[in-house]
Amino acid sequence: EVSTEDPETAFCTLANREDLNPEEGSIHHCLYQFTRNENLTETNKLLCDVCTQRRYGPKKDIKSEKKYVYTNAKKQMLISLAPPILTLHLKRFQHAGFNLRKVNRHIKFPEVIDLAPFCTVKCKNVAEGNTSVLYSLYGVVEHSGTMRSGHYTAYAKMRSMNNRLPDLVLRGQSPQALETEPGKGQWFHISDTHVQAVPASKVLSSQAYLLFYERLL
How many CA atoms, within 13 angstroms, populate the side-chain half-sphere of residue 145? Predict the structure, then answer.
């Protein structure tokens, strides 16, 4: 319940969001917008049980919904549990009148991403004192075509074994640093039965639909 949270840390993150200054059209900007602070006012006011009880008494004694008290509030969605595997699904469609239209805009994404600016300050699975929550890219799904038809292909990275990832997945242990080298490994482009080695630059220039990252720190 919100009432049990420390109001001083309710909207705090592991790393300062204001230092980001994310570039528009990047995955950082998408995450920044998704986790932005929202003001709930007018028709979006929050039903406040505490305010209602102060004015009208216990909720069970309220006969009419008109007696509920709504109040202005702030809302923010942050990550409370850093996952072992991070999957980012980009919204690749928009409404055009009564129709849906595919969004073909390129969204920039890095090989290593830090989720700390989007995690609550009390985020679970993060070692005390850590101000970074790092993830390394290992897979991308791309879609070519339209909303009605098209073809899915994938980019996958063959890299060294992440030996401690099973501990994080199965036992939820907070890692100090997982044993993997994000800069090393060969990328491959997979289209049906055709597999071809490609440079990282080709992967990063793709029109990503799904992004797969694994936890480093």
Answer: 9
* Residues 165 and 177: beta-carbon distance below 8 Å: no
Beta-bridged to residue 119, according to DSSP, are 79
For the four alpha carbons of 94, 99, 104 and 109, in that order, the dihedral sign comes to positive
Q: Do β-strands 150-158 and 99-102 pair in parallel, antiparallel, or remain unpaired?
A: unpaired
Query: What number does CATH give the domain 79-173+182-216?
Result: 3.90.70.10
Domain map (residue ranges) of the chain: 79-173+182-216
Q: How far apart are CA 89 and CA 6, in angstroms?
A: 32
**pLDDT single digits (tens) 41-96:** 988 888 888 888 887 776 555 555 567 888 888 888 999 999 999 999 998 877 77
Q: What is the Cα–Cα distance from 206 to 109, expressed in whole angstroms?
A: 10
Both tokens assigned to 194? 């055709």
